[in-house]
């Protein structure tokens, strides 16, 4: 079973599609919750979700806007979508 923060990260990544990378996911989570999302918590969770096979990450191209640093891109796997759906359904049933 996913945790609440893992669910938020997965759903933000799905929503962002090809624009899902660390900073954009963080922004989506902060807008949705109204709370700050620390960079450390975000990347720790991305690592954990990747280890569980729920999403894949890779380094994108470097961009001048980021001072030549690449973005860490993310894409949710089929297993990740299934886990998020199961979490949502469980919360809905309990609610």
In short:
Helices cover 58% and strands 16% of the residues. The protein is an alpha+beta fold and 95 residues long. Strand 1 (55-62) and strand 2 (70-76) form a beta hairpin.
What does this structure look like?
- This protein has 95 residues and is an alpha+beta fold.
- The protein has 4 helices and 2 strands, in the order H-H-H-E-E-H.
- It has helices at residues 4-16, 22-33, 39-51, 78-94; strands spanning 55-62, 70-76.
- It has a two-stranded antiparallel ribbon with strand order 1-2.
- The longest helix has 17 residues, at 78-94.
- The protein starts with a helix and ends with a helix.
- The model has no long low-confidence stretch (mean pLDDT 95).
Please describe the structure with a list of short key phrases separated by commas or semicolons.
alpha+beta, 58% helix, single chain, 95 residues, 4 helices, two-stranded antiparallel sheet, globular
Give the helix/strand layout.
Layout: H1 4-16, H2 22-33, H3 39-51, E1 55-62, E2 70-76, H4 78-94
Antiparallel strand pairs: 1-2
Low-confidence stretches: none
How many E-type strands? 2
The profile of the biggest β sheet is:
2 strands, antiparallel
Quickly give the structural class: alpha+beta
Order of helices and strands: HHHEEH
What sort of overall outline do the alpha carbons produce when their principal axes are compared? globular
Strand order of the largest sheet: 1-2
Radius of gyration from the CA trace? 13 Å
Calculate the mean pLDDT score and round it: 95
> With helices defined by DSSP (H or I, 4 residues minimum), what is the helix count?
4
Q: Which band does the percent of strand residues land in?
A: 15-25%
Our measurement of the CA-to-CA distance between the termini, rounded to an integer number of angstroms, reads 17 Å
């Amino acid at each position: 079973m996913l945790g609440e923060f893992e669910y938020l990260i997965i759903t933000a990544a799905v929503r962002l599609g090809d624009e899902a990378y660390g900073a954009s996911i963080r922004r989506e989570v902060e807008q949705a919750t109204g709370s700050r999302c620390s960079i450390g918590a975000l990347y720790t969770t991305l690592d954990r979700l990747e280890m569980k096979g729920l999403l894949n990450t890779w380094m994108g191209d470097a961009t001048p806007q980021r001072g030549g640093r690449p973005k860490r891109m993310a894409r949710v796997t089929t297993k990740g979508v299934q886990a998020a759906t199961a979490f949502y359904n469980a919360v809905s049933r309990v609610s």
